[in-house]
């Protein structure tokens, strides 16, 4: 048993869990460029072939690491506000801040895997937690039911705007030398709730 494996077992983790944790750490800190089986194995302190005793292929390991990365990030971010609590404005700012932080943490890993659809497909099979987008939609729908939003409030359009801002902010930062400045969250929420209509 290698020292790394002994450490993993001593911590109550299986070798498979140790390999996923190692790949997750590499994915989070270095991205996916050049993230090979050999790199993961060396970082984990095992021989290259050991990975194939626990995973069918590299794609399965990377999907498990990506799933772990998203779950770890979501756990750090805590819970989102319940419908009916505080004000809708406050709760939407909280949702938006959560979404921005989540996307800043995980989008770099996803963009690095665009050329590896097999990894993304495996991730979709593994990741059964409710996505933030769905949580936001459910929150707005519940507030509409409670009468804290207009009965005809276009929930899907509001969700698309807020999620789109997160994508634009993070992807622009990855692709451009000078990404656009994120507008104040209170301004974004004001536009979502009150629109840009002309003054009567």
TrEMBL record:
PROSITE patterns: HTH_TETR_2. Residues 13-73 form the HTH tetR-type domain. InterPro entries: Homeodomain-like_sf, HTH-type_TetR-like_transc_reg, HTH_TetR, Tet_transcr_reg_TetR-rel_C_sf. The keyword Chaperone does not apply. The keyword tRNA-binding does not apply. Residues 36-55 bind DNA. It holds the Pfam family TetR_N. Keywords: DNA-binding, Transcription, Transcription regulation. This is TetR/AcrR family transcriptional regulator. It comes from Tenggerimyces flavus. The lineage of its organism: Bacteria, Bacillati, Actinomycetota, Actinomycetes, Propionibacteriales.
């Amino acid at each position: 048993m290698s020292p790394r494996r002994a450490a993993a077992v001593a911590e109550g983790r299986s070798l498979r869990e140790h390999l996923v944790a190692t790949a997750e750490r590499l994915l989070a800190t270095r991205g996916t460029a050049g993230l090979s089986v050999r790199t993961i194995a060396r970082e984990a302190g095992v021989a290259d072939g050991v990975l194939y005793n626990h995973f069918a292929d590299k794609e399965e390991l990377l999907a498990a690491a990506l799933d772990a990365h998203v779950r770890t990030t979501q756990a750090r971010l805590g819970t989102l506000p319940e419908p009916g609590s505080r004000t809708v404005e406050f709760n939407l700012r909280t949702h938006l801040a959560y979404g921005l932080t989540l996307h800043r943490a995980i989008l770099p890993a996803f963009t690095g895997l665009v050329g590896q659809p097999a990894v993304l497909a495996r991730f979709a099979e593994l990741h059964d937690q409710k996505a933030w987008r769905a949580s936001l939609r459910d929150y707005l729908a519940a507030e509409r039911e409670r009468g804290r939003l207009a009965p005809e409030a276009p929930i899907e359009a509001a969700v698309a705007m807020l999620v789109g801002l997160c994508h634009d902010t993070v992807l622009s930062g990855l692709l451009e030398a000078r990404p656009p400045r994120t507008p104040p969250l209170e301004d974004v929420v004001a536009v979502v709730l009150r629109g840009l209509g002309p003054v009567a």
